[in-house]
Predict the structure.
Amino acid sequence: MPDTPGVPRDREARPSLAAVLELRRDRMSTVREVIDRLTEQALDADTKPVEAPGWPRPGSYPVRECLLIILNEEWEHRLYAERDLDALEARATGERAGR
């Protein structure tokens, strides 16, 4: 994402793993709470319009669409993580074999 006025981004940030995992647990808990309260009617309702800069573009979206985007993002991030972990493991295995 390119720099966007009003959207914070610090390329120099290096949070600890503990801080990242704590934030992730908090976000996962929030999503779980929202999902537990959803009904079919709520899934089909539109979100309140968001006018702040960022993504998606300002507007109102069906809740169902928002959840599908979250699920897709989670899936893609998992694929990237598994790919990267496999590469790190292969590198470590190759380094041990080369000793």
Summary: The two ends are 41 Å apart (CA to CA). Residues 17-97 form one domain. The chain has one domain: 17-97.
